[in-house]
Specification:
Oligomer: single chain
Radius of gyration: 19 Å
Shape: globular
Helix content: 40-55%
Structural class: alpha/beta
Number of helices: 9
Number of domains: 1
CATH class: Alpha Beta
Strand order of the largest sheet: 2-7-1-8-9
Strand content: 15-25%
CATH superfamily: P-loop containing nucleotide triphosphate hydrolases
Largest sheet: 5 strands, parallel
Length: about 230
């Protein structure tokens, strides 16, 4: 399944960059899941194998951690600049978490959409709601479920880094997140990471081919029917 999935990801929408391009508008792909459902692994595969999708780079007020690069991991700003961006409506969505602010900037993503390039988002259901309210036509929402609560607990326990209390808190949060599954366009069960990755590649390929995103289609068809 992995090879076929890679093939579907690597062969993009028809002629996006070629001389006979059927120009398309990019999309905003949201992947959400409870911790332990495999979302990070799948996101990394997409970014590695698909040149037309890139991770959204958030703006944050927290200080850079060792090894983090400005413009790659985050855009680092002070609180005054972040507040100005909020005031000027420069974010699709933003939130304050543990005393630090995080926001999704509009300008860079809108430029990518216009160029026919896609942006990947790793956000929770609240961020998904905010993004969808502001950019509904460009958003594709995918929720990844674990095959069972028992398997999710096994994965979280298998990390070997958290206490029983922390795992219990993560499980409670996971079940709360799962309750919002019906706010997504697609729901995929990750009982096999290769199969799950393949399904998400199929979703991405189909969404790229939607007529509404084929911005060059009208002109192309007019040429076909002319004369």
């Amino acid at each position: 399944m992995a090879d076929s999935a890679r093939s579907s990801s690597d062969h993009h929408a028809p002629g996006v960059h070629g001389p006979d391009a059927l120009h398309r508008r990019g999309l905003m792909l949201i992947l959400s899941s409870p911790s332990g459902a495999g979302k990070t692994t799948i996101a990394r595969r997409l970014l590695e194998h698909d040149a037309e999708i890139a991770m959204s780079v958030s703006v944050t007020t927290r200080a850079p951690r060792p090894g983090e690069v400005e413009g790659k991991d985050y855009h680092f700003v002070d609180r005054a600049e972040f507040d100005r961006m909020v005031e000027d409506n420069e974010f699709y969505e933003w939130a304050e978490v543990f005393g630090h602010c995080y926001g999704t900037p509009k300008a860079q993503i809108r430029a990518r959409l216009k160029e026919g390039l896609d942006t990947l988002f790793d956000i929770d259901w609240q961020g998904t709601q905010q993004l969808y309210q502001k950019a509904e036509a460009d958003v594709v929402r995918v929720f990844i479920l674990p095959p069972s609560i028992e398997e999710l607990r096994r994965r979280l326990t298998g990390r070997g880094t958290d206490s029983a209390d922390v795992i219990a808190a993560r499980m409670a949060r996971a079940q709360a997140e799962i309750s919002h599954w019906d706010g997504y366009d697609y729901v995929v069960v990750n009982d096999n990471v290769d199969a799950c990755y393949g399904q998400i590649c199929q979703i991405l390929a189909a969404e790229r081919l939607k007529r509404a995103r084929q911005t060059g289609l009208i002109g192309f068809v007019r040429e076909l029917t002319r004369g």
